[in-house]
Input
Amino acid sequence: MSYYRAIVGAAHRAVRAVLGQDATLTVDGTAYSVRVVYWEPSSTVPVGNVDAIDQRPRVTVHHDDLDNLSITPLVDTVSVSGRLYAIEEVRADGLGRLRLTLSGP
Output
């Protein structure tokens, strides 16, 4: 399993280098610069009489880049691509990355 994790980790680092962008993660009032892969929210889609967002914005960040920070959902924030988001959910993928689901702006 560690060989698999090493391969996945190398692939994620390559993706961050090419597709990643700089972001500011604010945890307990302290700002940290991190490199993330950012997925913008998709456009709205009509669902009956309501417009719904097909995909919520999210970022993926490597756990090692966070220096063991404890992220508190709905309190801590991330600023990426000129937008400030609240962190709604933190989910580990089991391969060394965290997916942060965002809400706002």
About this structure: Residues 43 and 49 are 16 Å apart (CA to CA).
